[in-house]
């Protein structure tokens, strides 16, 4: 049983897709299949059920995954601690919600890679916030950066960085952008909404608390689409203020002065409580915290 085989098995067990496993690890798919077959032959049990194109873990596979996680974590820890080079190195898998991916991560990643070139950063595309937290719990992500309501967890370390400032925005020609409004002023406006996330839920709860039930709603896939629709005067939206700094400065969008924009949404970093705090992970947390707290 080799470390390489355990790494391939661990990745395949969490992805349940040999093609995607090959892409993540940079191997040919035939190599993935061969290593898993060799591991099954050595152990004398099947680790995966192959039902057509569908792959699931057997009971033996589930048991081995617990050991593989422990062995690979200890191997990485030993390499970092015992090795003569104390400079952060190795692989770090990160994930972030859309706002951070677009408006914060580029600067963070640039700074991090300049300081720690020996760390291989793997970015996992964003999914829903709750899915990201599940992926951390399963060990598929090392650290995540999210904006959501303050969260406590038995399995995750949660580091609050600061409040995410929100902005209620409208087009440059919408009269709501020229005066301080009250909640009833929003009742006849079309709402431009993101897909499910904490700040959308908090915004809708705030409106209901003030007795506002907007029936005119348009759900859009991302913040950039929402901004374009706001500029086209299709409605109003509440999004993180960092996403509209440029448009506000240029006068293409106006900020609506409303006392309901405080939603207790926090910028937070998450990692598993049993995750070894490797030099690479600690370095990323420090760099990200420095950048976010200065903005």
UniProtKB/TrEMBL annotation:
Gene3D superfamilies hit by this protein: 3.40.190.290, Winged helix-like DNA-binding domain superfamily/Winged helix DNA-binding domain
Superkingdom of the organism of origin: Bacteria
Keyword Hydrolase attached: no
Keywords carried by this UniProt record: DNA-binding, Transcription, Transcription regulation
Domain HTH lysR-type: 1-58
Coiled-coil blocks: none
CDD domains with a match to the protein in the record: PBP2_LTTR_substrate
Family recorded in the similarity comment: Belongs to the LysR transcriptional regulatory family.
Protein name per Swiss-Prot or TrEMBL: LysR family transcriptional regulator
Organism: Salinicoccus sesuvii
């Amino acid at each position: 049983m080799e470390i390489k085989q355990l790494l391939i098995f661990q990745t395949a067990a969490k992805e349940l897709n040999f093609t995607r496993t090959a892409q993540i690890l940079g191997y040919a798919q035939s190599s993935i299949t061969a290593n898993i077959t060799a591991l099954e032959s050595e152990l004398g049990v099947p680790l995966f059920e192959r039902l057509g194109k569908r792959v699931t873990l057997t009971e033996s596979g589930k048991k081995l995954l617990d050991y593989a996680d422990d062995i690979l974590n200890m191997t990485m820890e030993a390499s970092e601690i015992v090795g003569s080079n104390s400079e952060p190195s190795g692989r770090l898998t990160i994930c972030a919600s859309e706002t951070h991916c677009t408006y914060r991560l580029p600067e963070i990643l640039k700074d991090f890679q300049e300081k720690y070139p020996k760390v291989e950063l793997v970015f996992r595309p964003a999914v829903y916030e709750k899915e990201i937290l599940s992926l951390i719990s399963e060990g598929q992500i090392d650290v995540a950066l999210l904006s959501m309501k303050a969260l406590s967890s038995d399995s995750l370390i949660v580091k609050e960085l600061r409040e995410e400032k929100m902005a209620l925005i409208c087009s440059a020609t919408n009269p709501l952008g020229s005066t301080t409004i009250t909640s009833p002023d929003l009742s006849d406006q079309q709402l431009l909404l993101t897909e499910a996330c904490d700040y959308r839920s908090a915004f809708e709860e705030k409106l209901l608390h003030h007795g506002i039930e907007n029936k005119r709603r348009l759900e859009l896939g991302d913040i950039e689409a929402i901004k374009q629709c706001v500029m086209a005067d299709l409605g109003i939206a509440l999004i993180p203020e960092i996403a509209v700094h440029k448009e506000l400065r240029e006068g293409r969008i106006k900020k609506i002065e409303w006392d309901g924009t405080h939603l207790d949404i926090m910028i937070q970093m998450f990692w598993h409580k049993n995750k070894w705090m490797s030099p690479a992970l600690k370095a990323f947390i420090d760099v990200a915290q420095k950048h976010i707290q200065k903005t």
